[in-house]
């Protein structure tokens, strides 16, 4: 069981998948993530949020609770995707779009509209090369608005993602946030390389 931290659904509880199908992001890391997002954006209001490898949906639903205007959650496991839909319904979130397909398959198709914020929490066993491939698809298929922020959660033992063309890591201490065994890597979509319409 986890909960929405802040916003219109603050304090509401969410179900998490049973067993080892997902690795939920801890409340502490989610709080730190959204502090970083709000420091970068000022506010999530009216922004479009894409949650990749969504698990329980806690990150995307937190974004909605904090004012995101559109939220898309991509989760390959169909039972887990059904759980996200149930979680969205339980907190009265009627705008969450849940896509039960692999991240690679979804991102290989052109986006209907670009996103301002992207959070990717790939399974830790997923290879660094596969993560880089998925990130490259974001820019190649117009998923990123100019200047969009992309955050990748990885194990502390994993290297920094090999950012593909179109994504530039943030400068200095804003580039990496460390929380126990979790690293959050942050990059921006460059306006010249983004293929957003």
UniProtKB/TrEMBL annotation:
Pfam families reported for this sequence: Cons_hypoth95
Transferase as UniProt keyword: yes
Methyltransferase keyword on record: yes
Sorted UniProt keywords: Methyltransferase, Transferase
Stored InterPro entries: DNA_methylase_N6_adenine_CS, RNA_MeTrfase_RsmD
Protein's recorded name: 16S rRNA (Guanine(966)-N(2))-methyltransferase RsmD
Species the sequence originates in: Nocardioides daeguensis
